Every structure is written in C-alpha cells, then in structure tokens.
Amino acid sequence: MAKKKNDINKTQKKPFKLPSLKLSSQQKLIFGSFLIIFGTILFMAFLSFIFTGNADQSSLSDFASREVKTENWLSKSGAWLSDFFIQRGFGIASFIIAILIVLSGVYVLLNLNKTKLVSHWFWGMLSVIWLSVLFGFFGNSYDILGGTIGFEVNTYLQDYLGILGTVLLLVFGLIVYLAVRFKVTFESFTNIFNSAKSKIKDDFSNTNDNTEEPVIALDNNLSEEAAAIKSAFDIPLETDEPVLVKKETPKPVAEVAPLVVKTPVFDEDDEDDEDIKIEVKKVAEELSESNNLSDKLVADFGQFDPTLELSKYQFPPLDLLKKYDSEGITINQEELEENKNKIVETLKNYNIGIASIKATIGPTVTLYEIVPDAGIRISKIKNLEDDIALSLSALGIRIIAPIPGKGTIGIEVPNKNATIVSMRSVIASKKFQTSDMQLPIALGKTISNETFVVDLAKMPHLLMAGATGQGKSVGLNAVLTSLLYKKHPAEVKFVLVDPKKVELTLFNKIERHYLAKLPDSEDAIITDNTKVINTLNSLCIEMDNRYELLKNALCRNIAEYNVKFKERKLNPNDGHQFLPYIVLVVDEFADLIMTAGKEVETPIARLAQLARAIGIHLIIATQRPSVNVITGIIKANFPARIAFRVTSKIDSRTILDGSGADQLIGRGDMLFTQGNDLIRVQCAFVDTPEVEKITDYIGSQKAYPEAYLLPEFVGEESGTSLDIDIADRDKLFREAAEVIVTAQQGSASLLQRKLKLGYNRSGRLIDQLEAAGIVGPFEGSKARQVLITDLTALDRHLENEIL
Ligand SMILES: Nc1ncnc2c1ncn2[C@@H]1O[C@H](COP(=O)(O)OP(=O)(O)OP(=O)(O)O)[C@@H](O)[C@H]1O
C-alpha cells in the first residue's frame, strides 16, 4: 500500500521551478538595460563583421596595441567579439545569440515569466547548433557561415555518416525540432498540401464558366490516392459546389465508394478530437478565470478606492490647532518634596509606616505611589482619604488602593499649576499618527503623560457624563476632531444631535463631507426632538439593511465586508456598496429622554445592542447622570464610559459604578473606563476657534453633492390604530400583503426580511394588514393567521374594500 503511494508520488511530476532570484526594481532596470545594450552591441558587431571581418583579421593578434586600427563598427571589441562568436564559434547563427540576449533584457526589464525565457534560450541554442552544423558544409569556401564549431562538428559527422547520412541526420533533427517545438504533425503537412491543391482547383474552376464538366473531367483524371486526399479536404468545405456535382454524378461512384473507406477524413476527425481535448482544457482555464473574476478585476482596475470621488481631499493640517505656552510638564521640585513630606507625616500620625515612595508627574495630577510597611491594612489607608486631602489642603485627591497589577497604593494629588494638554500635541503624537485603529480617538494624556488613544469601533459605544462646565463639550469636540484628522469623508459619517442648538453648529459646514441626515430634512444637525426619533429609527433601518448586506456577503462585520468590497468580491449590482462608519453623537441626552422617553430609549437600546458589527457607534453625553436618564438597559450596552467631574458620589456611581468622578478637579480632568480599570486622563483641549478653522478648511474643499442619506423613515404619525384609513396606509401596504399571502405566514419579521424594512415599519404594516382583515390578531409567540388564501382572493378583497 505504502509502496503504491510512493509510486504515485514518483510519477507525479513536480513543476519545474526556477531558483528565485529576487531583484529590486532598480537592479532590474540596470541588469535589463545592460542585457539589451550588450545584445544590441553584439548584433551590430556581427553585422559589421560580415563586411569588415576579413580586413580586421590581421589586427586581432595586436588587440592590445592602440595604433592598430580596426574597421568594425564597434572597433576592436566588436572585431574581437565577432571573431569569438562567428569565426571561432557558431558562424552567422550567432546572430540568434545576440537576439536572445536582447530578449533576456526585455524579460528582466518588464518582469516577464522567466520559465518562458529559459525555453527561448533552450530552443534558440538548439537552432544555433543546428544551423552552424548545416552551414558547416560550406566551411571550406565560406568559413564564417558555420564558424569553427559548425565546420568541425559537420566534418566529424561526415567522417562517420558521410554527406548523405549527415544531411539525413540534420533533416531528422529539424523534424524533431518542428514536432516538439511547434507541435507540427503529419496531418498538418498533408493539410498544407491539400489546401494548396484545393486552391489550385478553386482557381481552376473559377476560370471556367461551365464548372460541371471540367470538374468531372478532373476527377476522372485523379488517381485513387489523389482523389482520397482531395475528398479529405473537400468534405469540410460544404459550400464547395463542384464537389456536390461530383458526388451526384453517377460516373465516379465507384471511386467515391473507396473514398469513404480510405478517406483520411476520419484521421482528421481524430485530430479534431485531440483539438477538442485541448479546447476542454481551455474551457477549464476560462472557468477558473471566471471564478477569480474579482482577482481579474483587481488586476485590471486595482482595488476599489472609496476615496476616489474626493481623491483630492486634503486632511486638515496640524497648523490649524493651537500651541499653548503652558504646555509641557515642568517639575516643581519644591512642590514634590512638600507633598511627599505631608503624605508621609499624615500617614505617620495614623501609625502607618512607608517603605518607599515614588512620584509620577502628569499634566494635572501627580501620582505618589507608596509601598506601606508590611502588615498595614490597605483599607486603613483608603479610609484616610479625607484626612490626607485635608493635610495636603487640596481638592480632588484620589486614593487608589491598591493600584491594579502593581501592588502599591496610589495617591493622586492635583498639581498647583495644571498644564493644558493641547489637541495639537495629541494629534501630532506618534501613537495617534501611526495607529491602525478603525476609529482612533486621541482623548488626551494619562497620568504618566502618555498620549491616550482609544478605538471607538472597539468600545463600541461611549457614554459621557459630567456636571456642567467640566469639559463635556470640549471632550465631544476632541472626539470629532480626532476622527476628522484621521478618516477620509468616505470612511466615516456623523449623525449629530444637539438639542442645545449651539455646541455642534460649527459642524454644519462639513455637512456634505462628513454628515448623514434624513432624506427630507433640511439641516443635517438635529435639534428638534421629533426629528431625533425619526433619525434614530432610520438608523435602525440602516442597521437592518446593513445586516442584510453582511449576511449576503457572508461577512461577520463591517471591516471584513469593506475589505471584500474593496477586493471587488461583492457586486454593486446586488446592492453592495462601500459602507462608511456612522458615529451618532447625542449631546444632552437627559433633555431628550425627559421629553421623548421610551420613543428614544427603545431605538437607542436597539442600536447599542446590535449596531457594533455593522459600524454604527453611539456617543451619548449627559449632564445629569441620574438613573432615570442612564437607565439600566442603556448602561448595560455602553461599557465604555467617560466621567468628567460630577457633583455627588451617587452620580459618580451611576456613571462609573463606583466613586471617583466626584473627586476630579474639573476642566477636562476625567476618568475613563472600558469595563474594568479606571484610567485618569486629562482631556485634550480644543477650543471653538480651532474647531471653526478645521471645519472651514474642510468645508472649503470639494464635497459630495449632498450629505450621506439615511433610509427614509415613515413616522408614527401614519397611525397604528386598527381603524387605519385606507388613504393613510403605508406605501408598501400592497406589496406587504402579497408577501404575507404568498408565504401564508403573518409575521413582521418576514416583512422585515423580504421588503428590507426596519422593525417598526414592518410592525406597523402588520397592524394595517390586520385592520384590513388580511391577517388575524396577535397570537403571542405564534405567527398571525393569514385570512386570505391566495393572490386572486387578495385582489378581490382589496377591490371590494375600495367599493
Ligand atoms: N480639556 C480641557 N483642558 C483645559 N480646560 C478645559 C478642558 N475642558 C474644558 N475646559 C475648560 O472648561 C470650560 C467648560 O468646558 P465645556 O464647555 O466643555 O463644559 P461642558 O461640560 O460642556 O459644559 P456644559 O454642559 O455647560 O456645556 C471650557 O471653556 C474650558 O475653559
């Protein structure tokens, strides 16, 4: 068994592989052009040698001497090279070598298939040898024809085979060459012969007006053999009328009979069979090509570039952002010492000894890490928070006991002079510039003065809370600015909800670049609460539509989907398109939830639960982080939270599930969490004039014809009660009825799938169908009963309704 396997392995030919010689583009240019020039030099020298070879004969021995003149076009080198290749080598067949060298140069330069080049060299050199041996016959009178090698090999062969034997050997060599190289067969010879013959015959018949007689006469003159060859060729030419005449003529019947037997047509058929085989192979190749249509498209047009429509778009330059004088941390040694002493003393007062203390200076706070003496309870230090704050006479002291993963206790003490973390410094940081995150946000700097960059796509939604005046709006602007500096308008769209009507208005200028809106709305920035509800529901429809696209494309998330689309594996005719990320920003969420309640909460919760995979991300900011604003369902779906300073411990608990936010010092001092650790960050500061400059810069550039349009949402006003007026029915009512009747299944999710609708609209459609008596009432988890049996009955039902 094993042996058999081995045999099989042996018989399986491994494809010939050239040793890979990797050349850089520059090396290819140098090497390729060298070969082309060298080959051309050889060619010119050889050509010149034919005329000047004799004259230069004598000068070759004095190659080194400058006085000796040569007549070759390429002087001494030309004369020497020609003598080497032609006189002492292969004779005039050496021209082929020059051509092969030029060809090699072209292959290297254009990076063509090297296996083909090897084949050219192999067959080229065989031709050189064959020709030089052939020309060797004339070596005595014209020695340059075959060169020394050709002459010597020829005479050697003649010694053993004689002239005739040598000629036959060369003919045999030629046959082998033609058969192997050009796949010439015996039939192709006969075909050439036949076609020549038929041409003569055609010419002959064309010159005679009376075609019938001479053809018969010609046939009569044919020998049996010749007639057979003729018929072999005539049969495929169906329009060849003289042949028909010949077949109908009774006279040559006797000849026709053996024709059928002897006719080489069958041989030709056999050959045809072989051709068919070859064609089958071709079909297979074509098939494989069509499978890799996307590869071909990518090879022809390159990957799809979503930024093409605004290919000249310029990202805002760094100069638009302000530099601050108070930037850069200055270490105030005195302050450090003073704080350290106070900490040590305070702890000593409570009998807590310290083994070591270390300080890390951040932009707003300094972290003192202490290692207490062995045997000290951590809770004891934690309880001293207020006492330490008192003794340091500073606001915003936070004790982290212990610092996760470090085994030390941290005491964060605000610096006397806080430094501003400018947006410019975080945007310019290497960490942000080189990040390959999908939606990178440079939030600010950590306590150890490192730039803090997070990926919104990973969060996947963000909840921001903080008392008024503590830096929320600046935080939102920092988030939006980060995305503007990193993402092309084709890659991200913002849906901005701003009930305060002032904070986000600046972004109006980039409406046609970066904003998304409802088809019928005038302003892209939403300030009206009813419009917010429509927009949120529209986003839900967009989400459902995107899920449908992802499902059809067999992708798990938007990143995979977009990669597939860029690789041209998804057909735009099937509704596929490049999907930009959508970032929904809601400022003053409290205001919204107070006025719209469940109507806002439901779509927000739905988006928060489901939208992460399809690239819709939510950022919600609120002043009042109370439980009736940040409800359980919202909290559960927003694992990433930012807390600016809040006024009470309760608020801190609502937003962070723990205290800490109440001990912040304000002005952009914040705590960030993504589920586990709390990270203290100084938010980057971006002022309104800076945002204005950025939006002006972007707004002045070429834009899309309009903002990114979200799917249309038919609002609740269209009614949900069961006594729905016929005129108020949804535009898709009839279609929905047909879907339900055809499937005999009264479910809203069926409509959602088939008509690509959102949850709410399909629910409303079902209500309307119920009101129209097409489906039965709601039956809990079961699908509703369909009361109409088929489409004809449905037509009748709807017609009666109108009457
Ligand atoms: N990151 C920061 N660095 C320095 N100063 C800041 C920072 N963030 C905010 N501030 C200061 O705090 C002030 C108020 O900030 P901001 O307008 O963002 O507060 P807010 O929380 O949005 O207030 P409101 O809820 O009333 O709109 C700013 O004008 C600025 O002076």
TrEMBL record:
<keyword id="KW-0472">Membrane</keyword>
<feature type="transmembrane region" description="Helical">
    <location>
        <begin position="29"/>
        <end position="51"/>
    </location>
</feature>
<feature type="transmembrane region" description="Helical">
    <location>
        <begin position="122"/>
        <end position="140"/>
    </location>
</feature>
<feature type="transmembrane region" description="Helical">
    <location>
        <begin position="90"/>
        <end position="110"/>
    </location>
</feature>
<keyword id="KW-1003">Cell membrane</keyword>
<keyword id="KW-1133">Transmembrane helix</keyword>
<dbReference type="Pfam" id="PF01580">
    <property type="entry name" value="FtsK_SpoIIIE"/>
</dbReference>
<protein>
    <submittedName>
        <fullName>DNA translocase FtsK</fullName>
    </submittedName>
</protein>
<dbReference type="InterPro" id="IPR025199">
    <property type="entry name" value="FtsK_4TM"/>
</dbReference>
<keyword id="KW-0159">Chromosome partition</keyword>
<dbReference type="Pfam" id="PF09397">
    <property type="entry name" value="FtsK_gamma"/>
</dbReference>
<dbReference type="InterPro" id="IPR002543">
    <property type="entry name" value="FtsK_dom"/>
</dbReference>
<dbReference type="Pfam" id="PF13491">
    <property type="entry name" value="FtsK_4TM"/>
</dbReference>
<dbReference type="Pfam" id="PF17854">
    <property type="entry name" value="FtsK_alpha"/>
</dbReference>
<dbReference type="InterPro" id="IPR018541">
    <property type="entry name" value="Ftsk_gamma"/>
</dbReference>
<dbReference type="InterPro" id="IPR050206">
    <property type="entry name" value="FtsK/SpoIIIE/SftA"/>
</dbReference>
<keyword id="KW-0067">ATP-binding</keyword>
<keyword id="KW-0132">Cell division</keyword>
<feature type="binding site">
    <location>
        <begin position="466"/>
        <end position="473"/>
    </location>
    <ligand>
        <name>ATP</name>
    </ligand>
</feature>
<feature type="domain" description="FtsK">
    <location>
        <begin position="449"/>
        <end position="653"/>
    </location>
</feature>
<comment type="similarity">
    <text>Belongs to the FtsK/SpoIIIE/SftA family.</text>
</comment>
<feature type="transmembrane region" description="Helical">
    <location>
        <begin position="160"/>
        <end position="180"/>
    </location>
</feature>
<keyword id="KW-0238">DNA-binding</keyword>
<dbReference type="InterPro" id="IPR041027">
    <property type="entry name" value="FtsK_alpha"/>
</dbReference>
<keyword id="KW-0547">Nucleotide-binding</keyword>
<dbReference type="InterPro" id="IPR036388">
    <property type="entry name" value="WH-like_DNA-bd_sf"/>
</dbReference>
<dbReference type="InterPro" id="IPR027417">
    <property type="entry name" value="P-loop_NTPase"/>
</dbReference>
<keyword id="KW-0812">Transmembrane</keyword>
<keyword id="KW-0131">Cell cycle</keyword>
<dbReference type="InterPro" id="IPR036390">
    <property type="entry name" value="WH_DNA-bd_sf"/>
</dbReference>
